[in-house]
Amino acid sequence: MRATLMMGAAIAALLPLCAMAQAPTVSKRDYQLHQKLLTLDSHLDTPASLDLPGWSIDDEHDVLHDYTQVDLPRMKKGGLDGGFWAIYTSQGPLTVEGFRKARDFAILRGLSIRNMVAADPENFALALEAKDAAPIAAAGKRVVYMSIENAYPLGEDVSLLDTFYAMGVRVVGFAHFAHNQFADSSTDPSGKPRFGGLSPLGKQLLTEMNRLGVVPDASHSSDQVLDDLLALSTTPVLLTHSGCKAVYDHPRNIDDAHLKALAAKGGVIQMNAYGAYLRASTPNPQRQAALKALYADMREGATMTAEKRAQLLAKRQEIDRLYPDTDRPTFDDFMKHMLHALEIVGPDHVGVGADWDGGGGVVGMEDVVDLPRITAALLKAGYSEADVQKIWSGNVLRVLAAAEAGTAR
């Protein structure tokens, strides 16, 4: 398969790192407990790495060298059993040609995920139902659920969801950074709603999702979309990677009222580690200008050669040297969001969706090696082992199981 580079995913793969602070080590007890738990992250943008030239999921990489955050050796070290591997497509024009290009890209990205599993069956296994995760992890393999971030590639034919369901997709998010044909985004550049929630086509898509047993994902969508999903969905709603507005008032985060409404319908918020959504940071105009120039070299669907990737990485490392990001959010900032959500809705409605390889990562939790810190922090905050297990996988699997059961109804 040809190596491709999606604009958004590729940018996310080049995370805003400065000199990496050494994460405090957790106790042996906490580390052993973490390794014992079934741990799933609900939003892995790592499929963007799979098509990079010379990059292998089976090799250990260095976040400071190539900016990637997830691979098999690091998953083992950090005790991450797997999660939902995202088919991400950036928002393009709402035209027949735009839909066609997005559809083709999304299918190829989905095949990259399937090829990863097929190429290494000793270490990876495709999961299709909630009950699949535990036996896969018990066999020492990584769990591979599939999801879609941004339903844009479905075009105006919601029956195309059947194709992606057959491929293995079990979670679908409606929108991304901008409005599309299905729903309003929380961050559209216009600053104005287009539909005031789900579009008529978006409501048709939700009906298809409920029929198939696909979990609706409201991350990136507007609050009004979440309102519509909570009112119309016959199964619980998931926020695969979001934060709390009460901690940081950003459009990508949700307020306490929506948190409570989500929980009342059995839904779950999976906590994001995307720094820009955790707290405000001091602007760095020179760095931003340099990164903008670098990203101008990246175009959706462009072939990425090994030489080109090496050039981009060298430029990125030079930017980090000349204009270091000295005000990055920290692990404590991430935990403020998680602990607030837990305070508002309790451990039955909170999980982890850090947005690895999609912009996630903070000082003190730069890649998946640092995940035991979450377990240690939750235990320190007074949550039980049973609570922590729910947070790491029990809650998201319950939502998936509810979607599966909804098909019978």
From TrEMBL:
Q: What name goes with this protein?
A: Dipeptidase
* PANTHER family cross-referenced by the UniProt entry: DIPEPTIDASE (PTHR10443:SF12), MICROSOMAL DIPEPTIDASE (PTHR10443)
Q: Which CDD domains match?
A: rDP_like
Keywords attached to this entry:
Signal
UniProt signal peptide: 1-21
Q: Name one Pfam family in it.
A: Peptidase_M19
Q: Does the keyword Signal apply?
A: yes
